[in-house]
């Protein structure tokens, strides 16, 4: 495996020059996390235009950005897959499964053949289903196939809670687990602000803890992407920032804990990919961060896993 901690020798390949792929490439460029970024897309003319534009920023970032073929994935520390049909207003992420699974049947074996030691990072929706598909199609070990999962949902959730309680989201410790979609679940039993459970925080501040307000925060978190898509037709900035965080943890071997999707067994349901907090480093994603869920949360996680299992069974 390439020395991922050495940014001067790190190559990142991105398959898909759509809005998410290009925004991620630009964010990686500005973050200084790679010496070389390769953009791969069936529409080479568009990809070249994007690279030409980014190359002007690359002059200051001191990184090389170029258009490539699948063969150019060779030696990449990580390959990010963003290619696929975008979610349209009124669609759920699961509505995209057949079209994007067919695309993955073509893309993933090519990536795996040319970059057998890379870490795959999947961002295409439905991300949990396609993370499992990428795992099967690549033949990679589970820790080297990572879906962006509920990392974005967790960020949105902390934002909503921070706004409600009037604190910086960085001081909110709360996660969304399960499907990156309608069956996702907030882990209320472990949510805290500077080490205090939410009810305790309210008691200390003389605030009322209102279950309805908490459910509204959860609802806004779940529906945020749908609202953004309804208004602007796509989401790209948020997911790009999440992908950069995932890549940073991998490249710098930081052991950062992020809620990402990984193949495993969840609440008694085997053979699915769902999001749980995972430790990320140069070897991939590791599920050694157990959550002490309540009984109702375990059941909700099981239902989330079964909903994904049902989709996988129909493929």
Shape designation: globular
- Compute the average pLDDT: 93
Largest sheet strand order? 3-2-1-4-5-6
Please give the largest β-sheet.
6 strands, parallel
Please identify which CATH superfamily of the largest domain we are dealing with. Answer: Lactate dehydrogenase/glycoside hydrolase, family 4, C-terminal
Give the N-terminus to C-terminus distance in angstroms: 33 Å
Helix run count: 9
EC number: 1.1.1.27
GO molecular function, one term: L-lactate dehydrogenase (NAD+) activity
Catalytic activity: (S)-lactate + NAD(+) = pyruvate + NADH + H(+)
Active site: 180 (proton acceptor)
Any overview of this molecule?
Residues 10-147 form the Lactate/malate dehydrogenase N-terminal domain. It comes from Madurella mycetomatis. The active site is at 180 (proton acceptor). Belongs to the LDH/MDH superfamily. LDH family. Pfam families: Ldh_1_C, Ldh_1_N. 45% of the residues lie in helices and 20% in strands. It starts with 10 loop residues before the first strand and ends with a helix. The model has no long low-confidence stretch (mean pLDDT 93). Helix 4 (127-138) links the parallel strand 5 (119-122) and strand 6. With 315 residues, the protein is an alpha/beta fold. Helix 3 packs parallel to helix 4 (127-138). The chain has 2 domains: 11-147, NAD(P)-binding Rossmann-like Domain (Rossmann fold); 150-314, Lactate dehydrogenase/glycoside hydrolase, family 4, C-terminal (L-2-Hydroxyisocaproate Dehydrogenase, Chain A, domain 2), CATH 3.90.110.10. Strands 3-2-1-4-5-6 form a 6-stranded parallel sheet, sandwiched between helices. Strands 7-10-11 form a 3-stranded antiparallel sheet. It is built from 9 helices and 14 strands.
């Amino acid at each position: 495996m390439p020395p991922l901690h050495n940014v001067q020798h790190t190559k990142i390949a991105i398959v898909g020059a759509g809005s998410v792929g290009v925004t991620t490439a630009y964010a990686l460029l500005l973050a200084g996390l790679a010496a070389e970024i390769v953009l791969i897309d069936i529409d080479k003319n568009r990809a070249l235009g994007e690279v030409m534009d980014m190359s002007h920023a690359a002059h200051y970032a001191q990184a090389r950005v170029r258009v490539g073929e699948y063969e150019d994935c060779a030696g990449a520390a990580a390959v990010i897959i963003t290619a696929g049909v975008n979610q349209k207003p009124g669609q759920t992420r699961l509505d995209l499964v057949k079209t994007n699974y067919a695309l993955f049947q073509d893309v993933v074996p090519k990536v795996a053949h040319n970059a057998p030691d890379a870490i795959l990072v999947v961002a295409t929706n439905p991300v949990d289903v396609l993370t499992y598909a990428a795992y099967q199609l690549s033949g990679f070990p589970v820790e080297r196939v990572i879906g962006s999962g509920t990392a974005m949902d967790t960020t949105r959730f902390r934002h909503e809670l921070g706004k409600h309680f009037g604190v910086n989201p960085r001081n909110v410790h709360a996660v969304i687990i399960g499907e990156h979609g309608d069956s996702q679940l907030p882990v209320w039993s472990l949510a805290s602000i500077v080490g205090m459970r939410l009810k305790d925080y309210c008691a200390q501040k003389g605030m009322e803890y209102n279950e309805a307000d908490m459910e509204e925060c959860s609802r806004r978190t779940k529906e945020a992407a749908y609202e953004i898509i309804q208004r602007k037709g796509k989401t790209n900035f948020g997911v790009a920032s999440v992908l950069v965080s995932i890549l940073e943890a991998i490249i710098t071997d930081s052991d950062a804990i992020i809620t990402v999707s990984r193949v495993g067994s969840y609440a008694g349901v085997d053979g699915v990919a769902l999001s749980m907090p995972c430790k990320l480093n140069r070897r991939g994603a590791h599920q050694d961060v157990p959550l002490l869920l309540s009984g109702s949360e375990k059941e909700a996680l099981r239902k989330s896993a079964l909903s994904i299992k049902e989709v996988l069974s129909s493929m």
